[in-house]
Amino acid sequence: MRTPLVATGLAESFGEWAEVAVLSVVLYVVLRFLRRTVAGGVFRGPGLLVWVVLLGFAFLVRALHFDVLEYLFAGFVPILLTGLVVLFQPELRHGLARFGEGRVFARLFPRLLPRRKGADRAPEVRVVDEIVAAVRNFGKHKIGALIAVERGVDLTTYLDTGVRIDARIRAELLDAIFSSENLLHDGAVIVRKDRIAAAACRLPLTERTDLPFRFGTRHRAAVGLSEQSDALVVVVSEETGAVHVAERGEIRPHAEPYQWLASELSVVIAERAGVARAEP
Is residue 257 part of a domain? Predict the structure, then answer.
């Protein structure tokens, strides 16, 4: 007669542990669902402690067979959950929106989700498009700009002369940096891989005396850096809006500067991403 009792006890114990495991998984999923929201911060702090206390109280009531307390507790939980839903309605709505835009739904229902602008572009293509769009705007509005794209030679020495940013490359961000009202506009932006590493960087000036007289400090800095490294340096004239590119100690204009720049940047970014092999 003991064997069935032992089996029953094991089954009950297993069922209780299974409930704990299921509730733990549910709690984990809820916390991940609400991460980066106010509700997530509350649940990770005092709310998590309250959750543990309520869970322990529920098991204690069941173990001691307090039928009245168990009945009251069972009626209290739905009210508590309803109150939480009402209290954190904005965060829950935000979490649902992020969940619907997640990778799982994007793979299962690709046609039902709106396509984000630039989501179908490879990172290398996006970087090139953003830089070319910014340079095109600089040339159109005659905004002086100096952008150095790092290749094989490390430019950390020049990063330390400016202000570290480490931000994703966006044309709007480049526009803001080189705005005349911005304190960072007087200097160079250094691009490392697919990010703006720093702004307002001081670059070495070339000592060449054969450069055209119309070339100012930005152009001489572009040539100077290209002499001391393999970086690709784009410079936009503040007086004329002309776009020049300095590379390997030479600076030259092009009849179709934006098309050529897009092509050249594609090669440089691909080299940095390991997609293409760098030239010796």
Answer: yes
Average pLDDT along the chain: 77
* 151-189 residue pLDDT tens: 888 898 899 899 999 999 999 999 999 988 888 888 999
Contacts of 193 (CB under 8 A, 6+ apart): 150, 269, 272, 273
Q: Which of 47, 76, 108 is the last residue of a domain?
A: 108
pLDDT at 119: 45
- Token representation of residue 199: 């702004």
Residues 174 and 197 in one domain: yes
d(CA 187, CA 147): 9
Is 0.85 topped by the overall pTM? no
Domain span at residue 9? 2-108
User: Based on the domain organization, do 146 and 252 belong to the same domain?
Assistant: yes
DSSP string, 125-161: HHHHHHHHHHHHHHHHHT--EEEEE--SS--HHHHTT
Q: Based on the domain organization, do 57 and 129 belong to the same domain?
A: no
